[in-house]
Every structure is written in C-alpha cells, then in structure tokens.
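TA notes, week 10

Several of you asked for a full example with nothing omitted. So below is the full record: structure tokens for the whole chain, then the designed sequence directly under it. When grading your own attempts, check the secondary structure regions first.
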C-alpha cells in the first residue's frame, strides 16, 4: 500500500533574524502547523550580504529547534554555555525546554549558505524540561544506500538503521537522494504525520510530481513511495506521531496555554527565562 499525498504546498519567501532571506515551507497558510512540526525553513543564498548578519541572540521555550547544514558554516552559542560550529552535512538538535537563549551566526564572508531549520513541538509533559543540546558532526550521521538511493539518517529507525539524534519521542528525519528512474519504498509507522520536502531536482510521489521547493503532506497509512524524476531528486523526510494537544504560540515561544505563553514573555522581560540570560545578552551572544 502506498501512502497517498493529500496536499502539496510551495514555500514562501520571508525574512528572519537580522534580515536573512529564507523560504518558509511549514508555518505558512496551508501548512501552518503540521502536528508535531511547527516550522520548516529552507535558507539558501549565494550572496553573503543576504545572510552574514545571521540570527543574533534570541530566546525559545517549549519546543526543539533542529538545524541541518548543507553548505557553509554557522556558529551556535547559547546561554547554557554550549557552542558548536555547524558545517556542511552536520546537525544541531537543541531542546529549548523551559528556556534558553542562543545565537546562530555565519562565520564566513563569501560563498554559499544553505541549510534547514525545523521547529519540533514537545509533548506538554516535556515542554518545561531542562534545555539540552546535541552537536552531530557530518561524519556521525548514519549514511547508507538502499534500493539505489543514498540515505542520510539523522533521527529514528529506517531500513534497519538508526540515526544518531536522541529525541523525546520517535521522530524520523532523513535526507534521501533518489536517482532518475529509481524507486524506493520508505516504510514509516502507521498513524504518523509524514511530510516530504523536495529541495533539489524532481521526484514523483504517487500521481504527484514534486520539484525543488515543494512540500508534500502524506496520509497516515502505507509506505511512502518515491520515484526519481528527470535528473533525480533529493528530499527531506520527516515523520512522527501527532501529539494531538492544544498549543499556544507566538514568536519564539510554543506552549500549551495562553497563560503559559504570557508567563514566557514575562520571564524573558524579567531576565529569568534562562540561566545566565543577562550575561549572555551582555556579550551579544559571543560567550
């Protein structure tokens, strides 16, 4: 049985951070909240002026951010004392939990910058968990070939392989390169929310053709069957069980109720959202 495609949406170009141009594919009309996926941004730019200002210090509470770099370099620093340099192929998995401030700043003045940032909701029971950080270098991503398709598995179980990311609940995150004319069946848990974001080339999923920038939302039963179109295609697959819980969100905070949301803003204004908040802001996110 093939998992049907129920909707295809195109990303919208927006600016975020200090004026960085991005293409938002979840978090827009038609794909506002694809439970449990809150946001997915594709940021790619060959012009350093379009990204060099980066994402200066800003707060989060209640969910996780996942950054997957394809090209370029991005320095992460946060108020918990973590820092890491994301390079091509690497992943940063940050749990905001009860509160954290971080900055994400490019460390180059020329060349291309390309990557994705995913916002992943947390179950309400975990939204106030201690903040956490996983820095996963490119050589630690699980890489293999299946049915002629190159697979980079960041999180979850797929094709009898396991991704390196540690998650609060089962999540599959995989980058697949499907050659022209090849077909790969991707077995995913029944009932999962499953999305496929084509970010290069062309793919066929059921009777739909996906090209660069198309996000397909799939049904909840059967295998996701991908066929490489003209020149082949590359796709980011995300799959997880929907939480089915109420959410209240605004800006950098995602929680269960409006009262909790208001408390998050108050805590930030009072300087108590995260340990070392004042010191981190005083350094401009550089320490």
């Amino acid at each position: 049985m093939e998992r049907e495609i129920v909707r295809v949406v195109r990303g919208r170009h927006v600016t975020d951070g200090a004026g960085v141009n991005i293409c938002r594919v979840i978090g827009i009309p038609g794909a506002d909240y694809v439970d449990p996926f809150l946001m997915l941004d594709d940021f790619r730019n060959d012009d350093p002026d379009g990204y060099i200002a980066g994402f200066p210090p800003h707060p989060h509470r209640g969910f996780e951010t996942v950054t997957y770099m394809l090209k370029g370099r991005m320095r992460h620093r946060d108020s918990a004392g973590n820092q890491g340099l994301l390079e091509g192929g690497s992943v940063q998995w940050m749990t905001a939990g009860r509160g954290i401030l971080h900055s994400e700043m490019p460390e180059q003045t020329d060349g291309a910058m390309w990557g994705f940032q995913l916002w992943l909701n947390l179950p309400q029971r975990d939204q106030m968990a201690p903040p956490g950080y996983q820095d996963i270098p490119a050589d630690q991503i699980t890489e293999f070939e299946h049915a002629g398709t190159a697979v980079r598995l960041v999180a979850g179980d797929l094709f009898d392989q396991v991704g390196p990311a540690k998650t609060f609940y089962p999540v599959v995150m995989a980058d697949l390169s499907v050659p022209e004319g090849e077909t790969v069946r991707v077995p995913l848990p029944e009932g999962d929310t499953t999305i496929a974001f084509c970010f290069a080339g062309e793919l066929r999923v059921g009777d739909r053709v996906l090209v660069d920038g198309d996000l397909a939302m799939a049904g909840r039963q059967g295998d996701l069957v991908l066929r490489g179109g003209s020149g082949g295609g590359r796709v980011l697959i995300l799959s997880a069980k929907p939480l089915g819980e109420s959410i209240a969100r605004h800006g950098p905070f995602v929680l269960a109720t409006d009262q909790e949301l208001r408390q998050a803003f108050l805590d930030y204004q009072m300087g108590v959202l995260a340990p070392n908040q004042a010191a981190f802001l005083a350094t401009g996110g550089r320490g």
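The chain has a mean pLDDT of 92. Use that as a sanity check on your answer.
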